[in-house]
Amino acid sequence: MGTATRQALYNMDDIYEDEEELDLDEALQSCQEDLTRYRDEGNRESEAETLEDMGDIYELQGRSDEALVTYEQCLTIYRELGDRSGQAETLMGMGNIYEDEGRLQEALFAYQGSLALKRELGDRDGEGQTLYNIGLAYENQKRYDEALVAYKQCLAIYREVNDQLGQGETLANIGDIYKSQGRWDEALTCVQQAVTLLESAEDTETLEWARELLAYIEAQSGKPQRQGLWGKIWGGH
User: Fold this and answer.
1) What is the pLDDT of residue 223?
2) Is 61 helix (H, G, I), strand (E, B) or coil?
């Protein structure tokens, strides 16, 4: 089970919870059978890939401790093999779990390790994604200056690779930080751009949040044309 299967598992997470649990259990059983076979054969590369798949499944099931143990086993093998791409992806998975658990320093350490590897590999898409996650981790710690540095580096890459969704999400987050700092004009510019990009990318969930953020910023910056929208969104008058 490789990259395409892992992506399918993540996509399945958005469909039906009961079907997801059934399918994930079956996928996990299949991985465990594959893992036993690869270990018997001494196939270390396939063993690592299967452990990575299992870590992804555990993460989707909310079994964070098991996911971390599995990722650590996988990471050890990727290091033995000198597989930098595998190491980078595994560190990202570990960082995601640490961040979800509020272990932000550990998340940053994992993300920064992944970032270094992706830069060595010239993986610009992966570099952008990792910088975005680093920005989130800093923002969650209210380390806004460091978050802005990461987000702006990320934004430059998303523009380079023409990722409209990535640009929109990043600009919205930058605008949210400016809002927290009371930098209303800068916040307004960023979030207006974010809404336009997200409309083009057709990301409904993020677009809804960005529109609410924009309405709030416009209200706080004294923009009368959107005061009515702000009231409707937040129950004001």
Assistant:
1) 62
2) coil
